[in-house]
């Protein structure tokens, strides 16, 4: 009987692993079935939604029941003040879902895991554990991807400012320099500046579009950069020189930070 119990336990682990892998696979398909667009049409769609058009595209747009469920979930999240936090995490992670859609996707996949694990383990307790673990995994997954995107943006920021400064020295206007970043910079900087350009072309103020980049990427450095750009545009001066100086300051600060961390690690290792 002990051997049978051991075999049963191993079987539960195998099927639970299979269910988690299946759910993770479906989650990736839903989340990355299409990339977050930055085209003019995509921004128009977003602005249309702000004006009252709540239609959803992609996977959720194909099923009215999913659209209604996503709206209900988004309303519930909004009533608890969680919508902005979820939307910010999805934006930072470049996951093409709205808050309600992400909630329904996570709950749906957790239910799949619950049913599969419960069926094979013949225990609702294991099903609840599996579903709960998937919900936790979904949250950690989004937060981890968002954190990596923020770190990449911060590392690329000195080079981004150098590209802006170089473009301005070449005779480009500020808008043309931003477009150059949106075309030549690596991800996620290219995506964020491309989105800002699309918004500006639709009539949004440049400083608002740039400030949104700083907010989405949670970048205080870029927030200060936007403030410096706005001041220079008002009072005049050599904006290219300001951006170049800012970039060099960031590089030197990062270098000092790395040295300080290396020194601290060395002292702790003694």
Overview of this structure, please?
The protein contains twelve helices and no strands. 83% of the residues lie in helices and 0% in strands. By secondary structure, the protein is an all-alpha fold. The chain has helices at 2-32, 40-50, 58-61, 64-79, 83-93, 99-121, 124-169, 174-184, 189-201, 206-216, 220-235, 239-269. It is globular and about 70 Å long.
Short description:
The protein has 12 helices and no strands. It has helices at residues 2-32, 40-50, 58-61, 64-79, 83-93, 99-121, 124-169, 174-184, 189-201, 206-216, 220-235, 239-269.
Measured distance between first and last alpha carbons: 53 Å
Order of helices and strands: HHHHHHHHHHHH
What's the total helix number? 12
The assigned structural class equals: mainly alpha
Percent helix, as a range, is over 70%
Q: How large is the radius of gyration?
A: 24 Å
**What is the makeup of the main sheet?**
none
Number of strands: 0
Q: Which percent band covers the strand fraction?
A: under 5%
The 3D shape can be described as globular
Mean pLDDT: 78
Q: Segments where pLDDT lies below 50 for 5+ residues? A: 33-42, 47-55
What's the topology here?
Layout: H1 2-32, H2 40-50, H3 58-61, H4 64-79, H5 83-93, H6 99-121, H7 124-169, H8 174-184, H9 189-201, H10 206-216, H11 220-235, H12 239-269
């Amino acid at each position: 009987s002990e051997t049978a119990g051991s075999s049963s336990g191993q079987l539960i682990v195998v099927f639970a692993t299979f269910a988690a892998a299946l759910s993770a696979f479906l989650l990736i398909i839903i989340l990355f079935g299409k990339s977050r667009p930055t085209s003019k049409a995509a921004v128009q769609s977003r602005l249309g939604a702000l004006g009252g058009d709540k239609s959803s595209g992609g996977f959720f747009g194909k099923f009215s029941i999913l659209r209604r469920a996503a709206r209900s979930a988004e309303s519930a999240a909004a009533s608890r003040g969680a919508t902005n936090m979820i939307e910010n995490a999805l934006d930072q992670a470049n996951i093409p879902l709205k808050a309600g859609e992400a909630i329904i996707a996570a709950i749906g996949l957790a239910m799949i895991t619950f049913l599969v694990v419960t069926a094979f383990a013949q225990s609702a307790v294991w099903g609840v554990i599996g579903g709960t673990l998937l919900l936790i995994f979904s949250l950690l997954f989004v937060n981890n991807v968002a954190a990596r995107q923020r770190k990449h943006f911060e590392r690329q920021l000195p080079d981004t400012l150098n590209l802006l400064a170089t473009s301005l020295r070449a005779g480009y206007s500020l808008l043309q320099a931003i477009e150059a970043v949106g075309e030549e910079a690596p991800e996620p900087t290219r995506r964020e500046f491309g989105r800002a350009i699309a918004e500006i072309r639709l009539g949004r103020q440049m400083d608002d579009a740039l400030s949104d980049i700083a907010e989405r990427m949670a970048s205080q450095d870029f927030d200060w950069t936007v403030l410096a750009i706005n001041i220079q545009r008002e009072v005049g001066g050599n904006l290219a020189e300001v951006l170049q100086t800012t970039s060099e300051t960031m590089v030197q600060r990062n270098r000092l930070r790395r040295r300080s961390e290396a020194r601290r690690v060395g002292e702790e290792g003694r």
